[in-house]
């Protein structure tokens, strides 16, 4: 029998990239090699994302292409489906799949086959927040934190393997440890005041010989003073802090169930920049959330100007079946308007075009 070859296609965020590195390790250990082209392999693993309709459509597009190719070529290619789609209703729409793997069955104990650059180290999986637009808690379940020793072991292994940069990843990294036995935990600020061991974990990692440590994503309501303090004390913690804003309008933030006001968000960034030399911010924003009128949008643009983000990941609102916002609100901002708002913020933040006349 010839060499067994596999192709892993990864959609979505760093969480999926990290999972794919473990899936790859699993098959490598079983004697598989990687195919350059999926048409030449015996097995395709599709690691899916459903965060927006466009992401989901890319998955369907790929699967259709595979099914068509299998039909015309007569080749036998097995298809394994994993990732965020497998736990949603969308799963029923897919045909031609031989095996389904739940994301939480992907063992974190496997030593990942990492790509170049930074080592991605998962610290938790799932999310306990209820942002009204978001399918991730449904797709990935409740937040489950990894044991600190296990995380530290993985970080040390990455260092031994020559990695200079570590990214701690989770849907809400700064609520890390709320579900663990956390007698030594610190209490986070914000209205929700969840207990978190994240400052402690971050400090332990920062003490190791690593050039740069980043973390994604952290949420404004869990960004405690203890966390700010730890970042300020360790120069190897990335000064570019990812802090998703989503909207700068209080009514929209409320409908999104984000748990902070625009003012509280801006004040938090001020508190951070005051304590941390050289702190800068990147963010995620959704444009065209239901009910976002021109005034609400301009409030978002205003916060962007006040904070002066380095970079923003801009997303057009996409109603997701099973989420609260899809149930409660009509998707009432036309596509063309979503695109216009997207472009304005892209120019303002990512291209640094001041163009104030455009949105005033
Ligand atoms: N846990 C992270 C990332 C969540 S998904 C966080 O809280 O920031 C990544 C981004 O996708 C989100 O920050 C949000 O901007 C965007 N997003 C999530 N659901 C969306 C939806 N239904 N429509 C448009 N964008 C969405
Ligand atoms: Fe989704 Fe909110 Fe959780 Fe992020 S914090 S994954 S946006 S529910
Ligand atoms: Fe990530 Fe997409 Fe899942 S953004 S957590 S892969 S739905």
Main attributes of the structure:
three-stranded parallel β-sheet, single chain, pyruvate-formate lyase- activating enzyme, alpha/beta, binds S-adenosyl-L-homocysteine, 360 residues, 12 helices, binds FE3-S4 cluster, binds iron/sulfur cluster, 2 domains, Rossmann fold
Describe this structure in words.
The protein has helices at residues 14-29, 53-73, 136-140, 148-160, 198-206, 225-233, 250-256, 262-275, 294-307, 324-328, 335-350, 356-359, and strands at residues 5-10, 33-34, 43-48, 78-83, 99-101, 119-122, 124-125, 144-145, 165-169, 186-187, 195-196, 212-216, 240-242, 280-287, 311-316. It folds into 2 domains: 4-105, Rossmann fold, CATH 3.40.50.12160; 119-359, pyruvate-formate lyase- activating enzyme (Alpha-Beta Horseshoe). The mean pLDDT is 92. The N and C termini lie far apart (67 Å). The chain is of the alpha/beta class and 360 residues long. It has 12 helices and 15 strands. A hairpin with a 7-residue loop joins strand 10 (186-187) and strand 11. It has a 5-stranded parallel sheet, with helices on both faces. It is globular, with a radius of gyration of 21 Å. Helix 8 (262-275) packs parallel to helix 9 (294-307) and helix 9 (294-307) packs parallel to helix 11. The structure holds S-adenosyl-L-homocysteine, iron/sulfur cluster and FE3-S4 cluster (F3S). Residues 12-13, 15-16, 49-51, 83-84, 136, 139-140 line the site of FE3-S4 cluster. FE3-S4 cluster (F3S) is lined by residues 12-13, 15-16, 49-51, 83-84, 136, 139-140.
């Amino acid at each position: 029998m010839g060499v067994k070859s596999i192709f892993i296609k990864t959609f979505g965020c760093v969480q999926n990239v990290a999972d794919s590195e473990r899936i790859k390790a699993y098959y490598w250990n079983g004697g598989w090699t990687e195919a350059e082209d999926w048409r030449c392999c015996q097995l395709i693993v599709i690691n899916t994302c459903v965060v927006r309709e466009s992401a989901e459509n890319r998955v369907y597009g790929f699967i259709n292409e595979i099914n068509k190719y299998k039909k015309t070529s007569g080749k036998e290619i097995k298809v394994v489906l994993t990732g965020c789609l497998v736990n949603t209703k969308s799963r029923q729409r897919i045909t031609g799949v031989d095996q389904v793997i739940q994301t939480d069955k992907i063992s974190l104990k496997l030593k990942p086959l990492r790509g170049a650059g930074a080592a991605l180290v998962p610290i938790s999986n799932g999310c306990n927040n209820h942002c009204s637009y978001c399918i991730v808690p449904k797709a990935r379940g409740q937040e489950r934190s990894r044991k600190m020793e296990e995380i530290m072991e993985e970080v040390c292994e990455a260092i031994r393997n020559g990695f200079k940069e570590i990214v701690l990843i989770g849907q809400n990294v700064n609520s890390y440890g709320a579900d663990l036995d956390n007698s030594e935990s610190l209490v986070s600020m914000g209205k929700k005041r969840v207990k978190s061991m994240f400052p402690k974990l971050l400090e332990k990692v920062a003490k190791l010989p690593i050039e740069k440590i980043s973390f994604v994503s952290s949420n404004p309501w869990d960004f405690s003073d203890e966390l700010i303090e730890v970042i300020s004390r360790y120069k190897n913690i990335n000064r570019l802090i990812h802090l998703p804003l989503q909207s700068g309008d209080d009514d929209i933030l409320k409908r999104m169930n984000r748990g902070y006001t625009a003012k509280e968000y801006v004040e938090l960034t001020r508190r951070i920049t005051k304590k941390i030399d050289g702190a800068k911010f990147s963010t995620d924003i959704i444009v065209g959330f239901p009910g976002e009128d021109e005034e609400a949008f301009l409030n978002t643009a205003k916060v962007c100007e006040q904070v002066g983000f380095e970079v923003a990941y801009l997303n057009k609102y996409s109603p997701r079946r099973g989420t609260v916002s899809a149930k409660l609100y009509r998707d009432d901002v036309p596509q063309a308007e979503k695109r216009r708002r997207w472009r304005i913020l892209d120019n303002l933040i990512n291209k640094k075009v001041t163009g104030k006349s455009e949105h005033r």
